[in-house]
Amino acid sequence: FGSKYRLSKFYPNKLTLRSFLEINKNSISDETAQSVGEMPWCFLKKLFNINAECRNCAQLSNNENGGDVDDEAENNDWPDADIYTADDFEDTKINPLDLIVALFLCADSFLQQEITLKMSMCQFPVPLLLPHGNNSQCTLMLWALRDIVKEWRPHDLSESRGFVEENIVQANIPFYSFVRLKNCSLSKSQFLNHVLSRGQQNNNIFIHRYVEGGGVKRKIANGLVEACWYLPCGTEDLDIFPEPAAFANLRGDIGQSLTQFTFLLEVSTATFVFLDKVEENEHKILTSLQDVKSKLFLVVNNKKGSTREEMMSVKTELNLPKTRVKTKHSSVNVADTGKSTLLNTMFGVQFPVSSGRCTRGAYMLFLKVGEDLKSDLNCDFVVLIDTEGLKSPDLAQLEDSYEHDNQLATFVIGLSDVTIINIAMENSTEMKDVLQITAHAFLRMKQIGKKTVCHFVHQNVAGVSAHAKSMPERKHLLDQLNEMTQIAAEMERQPSIKAFTNVLDYDIEKNNWNIPGLWHGTPPMAPVNIGYSVAVANFKQNLLDAVKSDRTNEVSKIPEKEILSWQNKAELEILNADNEAEMETWNRLVASKKSEVSDKITDQQRKIKEKLSDYYRKKDRHVNLIEKYKVDFINSINSLANEIQHSVSNKLDCVLEQKISSKKVQDIQREYRAVIEEQVMKLLSDCKESTLTDEQLTHEFEKMWNGATVNVSGLKERDIAACVLNQLRKNFSNQNVNKELQNIGDLTDIGKDQFKTTRDHVDSYMKKFQYWFSGDLQSFADSVIDTSTKFVLDKTKIELKLHICGIASRESLKMHKKFLSENDPQTQLEKYKTQYLSDFLDLYKQRDDCQRKATAFVQLCIKPAVEEYISRSLGVDIVDEILTSCHSAEYSSRSFFQYNIQKELLKKEDFESFVKYIGNYEIYVKDWIFQHILKKSEAIEQASKGEDGVLLPDNKESITELISNMRKYLTKDISLSVEDEKTTLFQIQSPCHPFINSLKISIEDLKKELQWEFTNSEDITETLNKLPIKPRDELFKRVFGCGHQCPFCKVPCEAGGKEHKQHHAAIHRPQGLGRCRDLDTKKLVETLCTTDVHSEKRFSNADTKWEWHPYKYYTKYYPDWLIPPDPTIEASDYWKYVLVQYNDRFAQEYKAKPADVPEAWRRITKEQALKGLKDAFNMK
């Protein structure tokens, strides 16, 4: 049952209230269920909107009958009719009771409470005993019912107009149960509805066989016990009972639900058993109930002609009074309808609702915005604030009540982007007071530059003409607002403000809402008005649409995806440039592309700076607090723009070099291709004079081929090692080390073993302090080798640079040889040897070469170009997918990124990962991102037509035009090799049209082939490494920052970009994690940098040339770092926990002794460490 309705993954009790309250596209859609899988969510959505038609969601909208019972059902006998109908219903129909039971079984306890509360507000019965799929087990749902508070007026309080308000499960009221024994043609649920209704208020409180879906066979709801309450309003003419009463309804036969029946007998004031007749089984069950006979009433339907004697027999055996056997012949709480109820209905939440002035102070709720709406709403959460009303009678007697209301209004309106004012007062004096208070608050918001929106809600206003007829009232409201605004403006000394519209944008049509009453009739037993739910839903939709259209707070950023896509196209345009063009033409093309990207970046740079200027002009954002960072923001913008422009410019230069190299290779290939094709045609001419077999022809071809290619020379290999060594000499040009470089042998032999530090690498000056720790220098050397992207410090010895250059020369040589292999003329000719042999044989035999040529063209020309296109696009697409998927938050900022990395480190509990993260921060971040990533035929149709749009002539000459057209149509996406094209189409004999058809077949085959290759590619790492645009590097640039780490504790700099004046971090770590140790005790240091720079302590390291230097004057050596001197700042519990857990291992790794950590640190748990991490990064 659960899998069919998409609930299996939530069973048991895994569907949370928080997930359901999320604001997403589904939550604001008003579409009906279109499939059985949508039924549960449609039901919940409408229920939380207090829409009494939610139970109709159990039937699909296109099923008109929806499970209703045929008219003849009332005239026929119904065997077990309360369970199923005689018709065999389709799978698309479901009994609403099954749907309700399934949702309760899947909902967690908090969602169960909310569902129960909303069902009670809709005057639905609520689950009292919930079955567990089999009738032997059930749950008493007291927890779910605990939030239902009802109010009523018993008749003995009518005169005093008092009332009772109480939690319904704790109320001491009579409890009546209704059950069915075996088959009964009388519906007890319908009978109960008649009893609990009066006059025209004939409510379908209980679902029964004659309502929509009620006749569908129940699958899991048998054994369900529903409860509802009758509550009097204190008016004799309207009330059915003078006192409150509770009613329970057991679904299904009591013989199948004995556990529930026994419970009901124990707790009920009276139990009513419905049945048609008393046969042997019924007789046995009834006569076993001797102990509870005082609570038992039998309701027997005489439709089947059961004899009076049969009934009397049961009465006698049970010793029941005469009145206990009856024979039948042919048959919320009153919720506050104000602002709290409005918010509850609008967003499905539960602000406190009761009579009178229920809300004290202010309540706040955060509702998560779903991923599908985040970009539209430009926010992650929606905050709801519900406050106590203004002009409360409870506070009116207090001297400072007016001041209290002013403070409250200012507080709420100041926090809010949208303010909803509920207009429900008829007293004009009170109305004016409220409007004056709110006018003061809005005026103060205008003073500080805050722009807010105000909506007035008029409740209990219904009717199709209500909006038109209320125009005079709305105009009167605006007049009062203008009057109160003028008074407030004079008090606030702003005489220039004369109207409410001078304070904020207000539209008399768009900012007033008429909401009908919540109830149909007199509460507490009145049904819910569906019009209320619909009107509130429209109001909510309008509010969210207004937020979507307001982009004033939208974050501006340089569109990296567009830049990457543009870069891809620019590179392709350069590669597709005419090979016969002059070099100067290519240079002009590259220059124009550089200018184009410069213009794009400059334009975006200007827009972001304008946004920044606009932001600083606002007064409502406390910009004075961040005024000092304005220059840093501008520098960051400039830095990012320069970085992107420099990166794109370098890439275009590389593509130009690639184009030049490719041109040289193709010129060589063209020369040899011409020789081969000339020899093929000469051999064909020679062989035409005689009749030869395929074997003889192949033999002749081999002799020709060997002779023609004997003098083909390969590309010359460059001395890569010599080039690298030359660069190294230039690097040392200003240092007296050239003599040491003269005796270097083969550079590729250097750096094959692990670099080992020796005492020769340590200054004798440093030795006198006896501070030789090879571990430190070794780790430093390893770090430099691993990253190989950092500039090597000047004091690093030549051996280390030679070691790195040895590695670089070997890797460069590999790439160089790979390039030579792929572009070697001999290799290229051999690749087409089979092609030329087939051409020769087909020409000799005069065979049709149409399909073979088409296949060769697709495989040798189009396939490589498409694969290159996919590789070029894949990098951009992966970056875009990650930044727009569920992982987008992890890359939204450096703080969020750091939080996620450290959170994962804590979960992994891997010491080596901690060491790598602290010591080799850049490598670890790149690896983390990399692991995260791990987690066209229409052109033929266009090319087959000439410039006039007419199909090309069906001759072989047209194929040249066809391919030319294809190149023109595809040049924006892929780059076709001219040499490969001419080789594959050498001496093609096929007419154009058959070739087009063969080409289409081959293209379709290629599509399937590529899909299979990409789907079944096992080495994803290798694929990602080959991409021209590497997703890891692009994501890395977004979140890495400048990469500098604190010189003491190694915490990364948190400043943005690379052009900030000073590096800084909010919270530093224990210095021992950054390898700092006490010189005397050799123990790792547990104190923070922020503490020591406020003390008299000293430090020494390689930067100070091992001279002791006061911490407080650290800026002498580290002027770029800002470390606040504050001894009160503590390390986060996260790093305290890490140091305690791995104290010994850090000491071993750093060649030191464990730190002396405070005893309190040892008591920190993993959960507290995670909380400390959240606090450090302000994550909730």
Structure characterization notes:
The chain is of the alpha/beta class and 1180 residues long. Helices cover 47% and strands 8% of the residues. The strands form 5 sheets. An 8-stranded mixed beta sheet has the order 2-1-6-7-5-8-9-10, sandwiched between helices. Helix 17 packs parallel to helix 19.
Put the structure in a nutshell.
This is VLIG-type G domain-containing protein. This protein is of the alpha/beta class and 1180 residues long.
Helix percent reads: 40-55%
Largest beta-sheet characterization:
8 strands, mixed
Distance between the termini: 37 Å
**% residues in beta strands:** 5-15%
Give start-end ranges of low-pLDDT stretches: 63-89, 332-337, 761-775, 784-795
Q: What would the principal axes of the Cα set say about the shape?
A: extended
* Number of separate domains: 6
Helix-strand layout with pairing:
Layout: H1 17-21, H2 39-48, H3 96-106, H4 109-121, E1 126-131, E2 138-140, H5 142-145, E3 149-152, E4 164-167, E5 175-180, H6 188-196, E6 225-230, E7 245-253, H7 258-267, E8 270-275, H8 280-287, E9 296-301, H9 308-318, E10 325-328, H10 339-347, E11 362-368, H11 371-377, E12 381-387, H12 401-415, E13 418-423, H13 428-447, E14 453-459, H14 466-469, H15 471-491, E15 512-515, H16 530-549, H17 560-575, H18 583-617, H19 630-687, H20 694-709, H21 720-731, H22 738-742, H23 764-767, H24 774-787, H25 798-823, H26 825-831, H27 833-845, H28 850-884, H29 894-908, H30 911-919, H31 921-934, H32 938-943, H33 957-970, H34 978-984, H35 992-1015, H36 1020-1026, H37 1031-1039, H38 1089-1092, E16 1098-1099, E17 1109-1110, H39 1133-1141, H40 1143-1149, H41 1159-1162, H42 1166-1176
Parallel strand pairs: 5-7, 5-8, 8-9, 9-10, 13-14, 14-15
Antiparallel strand pairs: 1-2, 1-6, 3-4, 6-7, 11-12, 16-17
